[in-house]
Amino acid sequence: METSIWRPILFLVGIMAFAGVNAAWLGWCERKGAGHIQRRIGPKEVGPYGLWQPLADGIKLMTKQLLVPQGVDGILFRVAPVLMMIPAITSMVAIPFSEGLQARAIDLSVLLIFALASIGMMAILLGGWASNNKYSLISAARSVSQNIAYEIPMLITVITIVMVSGSMNMEEIAKDQMGGFWHWNIFRVENGTFLYMWISFLIFFICSVAETNRAPFDMAEAESELVAGHMTEYSSMGFGLFMMGEYLNIVVGACLTTVLFLGGWDCPLGLLPGVWWFLLKIYILIFSFIWIRWTYPRTQIYKLLNLSWKVLIPFSLVNLLVTAVFLKVF
Amino acid sequence: MQTLFCQPAGGPSLFSAEGFVGLVFLITVGLIIAGAVVATTSRRLVRCVAGLALAFTGVAGLYYFLLSPFVAMMQMLIYVGAVSILIAFAIMMADPEDHTGRGRTGALASPIGAAVGAFLFVALAYLGVKTEWQAFPRQGTGDMEAVGKAFLTTYSLVFELISIVLLLAIIGALVLARRGRSRA
């Protein structure tokens, strides 16, 4: 391991910059995407193609007053937005962007990301409760039941990946898939048997959409029913931090999907593997998140929970069993 | 990394690696104590749960210092991510905000409580300081493979028993939920 002090400092700056740029400009991407999907133009006034819109939004949010309404739980109300950002940025420490481009080569990096992701849920719960607002409380309860429901199939699917790759180290899982798209976990062939890993991919993708509270599963901030859910009482940068945390969670989810299923930094045709392929893949995934959000209508909370408990969990368990049988028998 | 934790240096400077690790250790211990104090003294139950989660996070840090990152992460995933959140969820659903009274308190309750607490603190502190702690040799690597193998060989009976307990808990929860539904 390198002993130089510069490596952690460079990674710290790099990760903060990556997180900041993504948190700011994914909002722009979302608004542009939404606009074009709805036959509008989207932001266009600030800068070319509205590209400086995030800066204008940032200045607006930071110059506004941070209102703390009467009757809220002061400490938890202030802590919750920060608690939303911390795990999202911290989990980027474990993500291998390319060979050797990983801030800390942790042996259990997959587990670390899931452990940190569960703190983000705590943030929504505390923020929603501390707001002392019925809409916020309903939103917190919904998001907790939703997150618990979808974490189970997600983790079961991750176990199939761990079984196939034989490691919980994200860098090793990615290295295991080098050399063209037919080596990727999603098209995995083990001992001449096609493993149908795309089923796992589908379950994992649905769960990551639900885990990041994105439409069609955005029951936590269903605007038509709950005003803005857990963010109702937040103004200025408190609201801004929740939004940025949401986008960073999407980035982390896309990185995780890329490493676990889509070969990490590997080129589909085996040419010039590197960080550019990784970024290309995560942005395609993020675009599909935006695409899904503005294409499908919101579901209901009951249907959402039924989908997880009655469809995804049985499917993922059967998938786990079948994969184990394929790995051991054939 | 291993030598870093196991060899206590005599008063390292804050800016050396050992000093920094010591600082992180103190922060971890501080998290546990602060979390425990919040969890026991707060009047609002959700705050208590937040303190509990803070203490669990600190305990996860201690596991990491004991060179067992797997247990540390499971602590985060299960205790912070699931147990605390489920407790908070149950509290929010039951909404016990009205019952914030202090319960039965007599005139003697606080002096006796303080005396017992002080006695316990002094006794435990005396034990902790006076005992000659022996460094326990490290067993296994503490990684996932070793834990898994131990579960399915040496401790398989315990593992199965815990599974049965969890199964019973699930069935019990289902029975209770079913009963509630038929009454409604």
Describe the 3D structure.
The complex is a heterodimer of chains A (330) and B (184). Chain A contains eleven helices and two strands. Chain A has a two-stranded antiparallel ribbon. The two termini of chain A are 40 Å apart. Chain B has 184 residues and is mainly alpha-helical. Chain B has two domains: 97 residues, Four Helix Bundle (Hemerythrin (Met), subunit A) (Up-down Bundle), CATH 1.20.120.1200; 42 residues. The N terminus of chain B is likely disordered. At the A-B interface, helix 3, helix 4 and helix 5 of A face helix 3 and helix 4 of B.
Tally of contiguous helical segments of chain A: 11
Largest interface: A-B, 30 and 24 residues
How many structural domains are formed by the residues of chain A?
1
Order of helices and strands of chain A: HHHHHHEEHHHHH
Distance between the termini of chain B: 59 Å
Largest sheet properties of chain A: 2 strands, antiparallel
Radius of gyration of chain A: 20 Å
